[in-house]
Amino acid sequence: MTRPALLECALGAMNLGVIVLDHARKVVLWNRWMAQHSGQHASEVLGRDFLDVFDGMRGRRIDGAVHHALYDNFPAILSQTLHKAPFPLYVDAEARQRGERLQQAVAVTPLDMPGERRHCLIQVSDVSYAVHRERLLREQALDLRLQSYSDGLTGIANRRHFDAAMDNEIRRTKRSGSPLSLLMIDIDFFKPYNDYFGHQQGDETLARVAHALAGMLHRPLDLIARYGGEEFAVILPDIGEDQARQLAEAMRARVEQLAIPHAPSSDFAQVTVSIGMATRTARNSAETAVLIGTADRALYAAKRAGRNRLVIERIE
Ligand SMILES: Nc1nc2c(ncn2[C@@H]2O[C@H](COP(=O)(O)OP(=O)(O)OP(=O)(O)O)[C@@H](O)[C@H]2O)c(=O)[nH]1
């Protein structure tokens, strides 16, 4: 095989688009890959002006890159992230109908040949697969992040999320001096509920209560988390005892209003919650453990006092 025939054969077999333009920007080489994905055979484009073949490219980045390659001897690489699918190239006729272009990475290179004015080589690679994989990986990473910060059963924040948010809020409150209230909320007589209705219905009720409580929070930094089995914790930044008390009382009443029938052996006809509350202020400057410990003690006081109630314990 002669050398030109060999080169012709290799060019035809290449798995990327190859275009060569002469100094006047006329197409002088167009390989089979380009014909296959553009729908234009070499005989239709050879000898034509590049911008006549690709009218939509006028004034675009690729037009500038060709200009710089031909007249300033500058090469350029157009990554698909910044220049999405510049050429109208498609994987097949169906994709063309849908207008779904191949994702492309484009390299524009000056070609200096002895005795000729400068030409320019344009290489187009199909990076659709890489782009698809990258998108998939990004989505998976986001999913994992969400999963690692939310509780699978109820969909609210999990304990890890609570710990991180609590650290942040304590730090923020130390800087700003604003108050920070914490509620610990526990479903009353949940063991008899599970024993009577079964664990699966117990799960459903847990999720329903979590959802109802979460629906009461409207400020962006308020956070409700599943703290333990049937216990929730609510972080309320920037509100002092009075406002937090009103919200906590409304949350208690909201669960009662759900009117979820309780087990016959419970003291209550409906599912209820007990709530313990404590507030960090600039004056008491409580650390995380003290705030949580105090809200926890208040919760147990609410249980001892008969349940379905709110108890506030002050930090001295
Ligand atoms: N269905 C279900 N039950 C859970 C889950 N996590 C914890 N529990 C149950 O919650 C119940 C908690 O019971 P206890 O701590 O004894 O207290 P209680 O019966 O709720 O009574 P008081 O808290 O004193 O009002 C236990 O029976 C746990 O099995 C869960 O994810 N799903």
Notes on the structure:
Residues 178-315 form the GGDEF domain. Keywords: Nucleotidyltransferase, Transferase. This is diguanylate cyclase. It catalyses: 2 GTP = 3',3'-c-di-GMP + 2 diphosphate. The protein has 316 residues and is of the alpha+beta class. It folds into two domains: 3-133, Beta-Lactamase; 150-312, Alpha-Beta Plaits (2-Layer Sandwich). Helices cover 45% and strands 18% of the residues. It starts with a helix and ends with a strand. The model has no long low-confidence stretch (mean pLDDT 93). Bound molecules: guanosine-5'-triphosphate (GTP).
How many beta-strand elements?
10
Order of helices and strands: HEEHHHHEHEEHHEHHEEHEHE
Number of helices: 12
Q: Any idea what the CATH superfamily of the largest domain is called?
A: Reverse transcriptase/Diguanylate cyclase domain
Derived from helix and strand composition plus strand pairing, the structural class reads alpha+beta
Q: Tell me, rounded to a whole number, the average pLDDT.
A: 93
Radius of gyration: 34 Å
| Quaternary | single chain
Tell me what the CATH architecture of the largest domain is.
Answer: 2-Layer Sandwich
CATH topology of the largest domain: Alpha-Beta Plaits
Side-by-side strand order of the widest sheet: 2-1-5-4-3
The residue fraction in helices comes out at 40-55%
The proportion of residues in beta strands is 15-25%
CATH class of the largest domain: Alpha Beta
Low-pLDDT sequence parts: none
- Total count of domains: 2
**How many angstroms does the end-to-end distance come to?**
95 Å
Major sheet characteristics: 5 strands, antiparallel
Shape descriptor reads elongated
Catalytic activity: 2 GTP = 3',3'-c-di-GMP + 2 diphosphate
EC number: 2.7.7.65
Enzyme class: transferase
Domain GGDEF: 178-315
